[in-house]
């Protein structure tokens, strides 16, 4: 049975759940994106608007941010996270958005949705703005701390298909390293590069972080430890730059006047670089669409995460990945588009 692009939102996942989660999801629902809030109805109901409120799927339990990923998923079949995942598996929804425990989201997705054949480990993919105006598709951003070279090659294939689904033709794939020469990098990187070049992807070779941010590649492949550190370093750098800029603007009256004249440019800058302006990351490799939101997500970040899920559904990403790895789309694959 096909649904209509319904997005199941884990209302109990995140540092500021359920209030911020519900507020962001309701904003997206008000704009026409079909949303179902999954969680404790008694806590969610008072947070809903009086008109045009999204439906609630009651789930009595929740996975805590500090809970053990595997243990919490196995013992909590009635948690909001597991119920949301099963809604996709049962074709009652098309995507899951959760800002909860990232490890638990990954484990629940594998348990309830399954993994595409040929993908040993799903990867978390996120998008960063590039200096040349393009987008950098980074994976893995935190799902797999230790990876074999063969798994990194799979990440390259997943990332290339993801970039293509977002309109990038013949995406260039780079391998994150500390230098562009073939001999650079640790043992993992040196073993991965020749395998990547044999994969049939448009591989540009080793790429340094600064070169990747300037446009040297479209897809940047790394393991989850390095990718997550790179992502958090970028977030920290943006926060530092913004704070330093505010300090300098406030230092002189002319700076305040200049900031007022440039307020539109500053707003657009924030929309491109702020962590809560992009909402979340896409879990690539499972047989259903999952968007992983930031643990400290506010209402705007949740809203953006739901919009990301909606756009990704429109791109038919999951079915595209199944076709790429398995050659066809099986009838038992969760629907990922209306």
How does this model look, in words?
- The protein is of the alpha/beta class and 338 residues long.
- The protein folds into 2 domains: 1-119 and 285-338, Isopropylmalate Dehydrogenase; 120-276, Isopropylmalate Dehydrogenase (3-Layer(aba) Sandwich), CATH 3.40.718.
- The protein is built from 13 helices and 11 strands.
- An 11-stranded mixed β-sheet has the order 3-2-1-4-11-10-5-6-9-7-8, with helices on both faces.
- Helix 9 (224-251) crosses helix 10 (253-261).
- The longest helix has 28 residues, at 224-251.
- It is globular and about 60 Å long.
- The mean pLDDT is 88.
Question: What layout of secondary structure does this protein have?
Answer:
Blueprint (H helix, E strand, L loop, with lengths): L6 E4 L8 H12 L4 E5 L1 H4 L11 E3 L10 H7 L4 H10 L5 E4 L3 H12 L9 E7 L5 E5 L9 H17 L6 E5 L10 H11 L4 E6 L1 H6 L4 E3 L2 H28 L1 H9 L1 H11 L6 E5 L4 E5 L5 H16 L2 H10 L12
Parallel strand pairs: 1-2, 1-4, 2-3, 4-11, 6-9, 7-8, 7-9
Antiparallel strand pairs: 5-6, 5-10, 10-11
Helix pairs in contact: 1-12, 3-5, 4-5, 6-7, 6-13, 9-10
